[in-house]
Write a structure and sequence with these properties.
alpha/beta, Rossmann fold, Beta-Lactamase, 5 domains, 10-stranded mixed β-sheet, 7-stranded antiparallel β-sheet, 21 helices
Amino acid sequence: MPETLVPDTSVLVDGRITDLIRDGTFPKARVLVPAAALAELEAQANRGQETGFAGLAELGQLQEMAGRGEAKVEIIGPRPGPSELGAADVGAIDAMIREIAAEQGATLVTSDRIQAHAAAAQGLKHHYLRPNVQEQPDLTGLALWKFFDDETMSVHLKDDCVPMAKRGKPGEVRYVPIGRKEMAHKELRAIVHECIEHAKRDYASFLEMEKRGCTVLQVGPMRITIAQPPFSDGLELTAVRPVTRLDLDHYDLEPELLERLEGKARGVFIAGPPGSGKSTFAAAVAEHLHGLARVVKTMEQPRDLQVRKEITQYGALERDMRFTGEVTLLVRPDHIIYDEVRTTEDFLTFADMRLAGVGLIGVTHANRAIDAVQRLIGRVELGMIPQVVDTILFIDAGEVAQVLELEFTVKMPEGMMQEDLARPVVVIRDVRTSRPIYELYTFGEQVVVMPLGGTDGPRSRRSSASTLAEKELRRSLQRYTRGPFEVRVSGETATVMVPEQEVPMLIGKGGRNVQQLERRLGIRLDIKPLTQERKREAWEERSGRTDRAERDPRGREREERHRGERDEMEAERRQALSRRNSPGAAAVDEGEGSEVKFKRSGSNVYLFVLDGPGGLEYEVFAEDARIGSTTSNAEGRLRFKADSPEGMGLLEAHKRNLRIWARPVA
């Protein structure tokens, strides 16, 4: 008498229920498909998950077998509601399937180990399909594997497109077509279905990630990425595998480099462009360290390093590499290979683990060796960078092209001459030449990566520092002056020329503003009045409007109007400064505040600070009543919405002719 079978979702996805009927294990079986399993597969397919499509395809094959008289297929049981489908991860659907098997007295067929244990606990008759365990996975039966040869690094398949492949070795890769015929959607879908079934069946293969429109599998040595709408514009499959598996002896490294890699308290980055051989080199390092009787673990997402089975490969625990890092530290490894360090969270996790004292080797994308250091800037404090990463190995065309060493010190940056300009500096040296080639240090408000090379030696380095100083000084001056200005940097001194009436404002009380700029920029400032001859040219240079106004007649009209407004503002500011600096004027206290000009435009109220620096936060008052506060732009303009409480207060004060004034927030 034919057996009555109840398959669960897992066995439908891996495609083995049809195999059991074909190979005679359950000939002409009566297959009762739970509506709950069908609903779960349908929900997965609607979310764009390939497992859902694979399970539905298996059901389609079952119905075809039933049409040929090889089996009987029925859909049975209640369809689950949204609450049961939402609780599928905690076993709600599996429980409904077991209940149907119990009611029908049927054999539950599953490839889910937990489902099999639950069935045994309930005393249900069940047939558990274990994963296929092979020392060397046999991939020759896969249609995808036939696109590979000994030189193929990756295969790129897309519906209605000619199949393509990357062939060669790192540094000598060719992107070539495989045949001339475009691949039909149905053919590609069959390849995708076959790969998912294999990943579910094979013990050494697994589903790495599944999101709406994207699935990542590891099938033997192949990392397979499947994309489809809505994530991509069509069905696409990309399979990548390592072409070569090398040991560290192949790279012929110097003894000093081997010592760096073997050091238990090192932070190393393996950097290089895509396809340069970074992962191949990282795998060789892992094998070498294991051969030194060291405990080696890897952290990967996806897990595609080709290493011996004794080296445990960890993925993202609960989709978060931070959790993986915490667990990895608990197993007390001597070395960890982190492939790859890409996002801000990855860099922070790498830094946290490195500071725990473990030997850490990270793999990261970079087109130059120094780019790997720059990816740390802003993510790790400058002084901590050498403690996180002290060595960078740049891989290009499968070879170690450059090795950099990072060292923290306090010194004068190259190109600066004053001893009081010493600051924390990260010196980056080429290990093979022992020559410093970059310096990292703070300059103003930014972190600078200053190259030290060049045929002119120190003169070239001073020129680079001067260029940087001029750029940062121009940006900083916009906080202190609203008119035109000119900057000339020569050596360690910068000459700043501003309109005569703005010289006191730029210098500040007791020279405070200039002293702050000198300390922050590390350069001496010489403040001079701007001659009338250069004043208009500097205005046009700062505003960047000259060429545009000449090309566009309407632009000329706007420029004339803006020029008139600037001249009017300039005249009012001169008057305000004149009143303050007149012989009979009383000494001005900093708390007294600055005069402002009121203007209503559209839905905004504008105040223009006449005798104070721009780029600061100001408190605004009407007589003695505080209205509010906001930050001015570089030209000293404050803006409030007219319908805001502050805007309405300013409108009322202006209407009543009250004195409106502002002062910088302390």
